[in-house]
Amino acid sequence: MLLQEERYVVKWLSQYGALPRVQVARMLRKPAGAAEKILRSLRRMGQIEDISGGYYVGLDPMCKPDQRTIIAVWVLLQFLDQVGPLDHYPAVYPSQIFFLKEDVGYEIVVLYEGEQSQLRLLQPQDDLKYIIVLPHISMAEGLRLPPVPCLFTTVEFQGSEVPEVKFYS
Is the pTM value of this prediction over 0.90? Predict the structure, then answer.
């Protein structure tokens, strides 16, 4: 029988695929040592596997990390104190993640260069806000936005394992 935190990890990895070990540890909201202990326990039980030399963890060794999802999870982590462990899940394309914060739904949309037209595929609703992740903030100038509140963000790694996430209105 799995502990609650172990069930969370299995659920997240089943939803998002392989994720960087550091992201999973942060999602657990535990000190690094405690999070690592949970991951070791899951690995021993055969519930998760190390991928790419242990940089990523996934449900099986054939999991391929999805970079859009990983970027979206970095943005989600900025709101983790206000979002329950199970109050987020994969969204409908072109969004990557949906989460609830204070009874308002948010969708995280990761766009790469030249994908501005993907925003036309969004289906805006009342009580829904978009967080649009861009490679650089200057790309925001040419976007045709849906008629709902939108927030922009960039995720910049700058040579470190944990990126800097910057928000713009």
Answer: yes
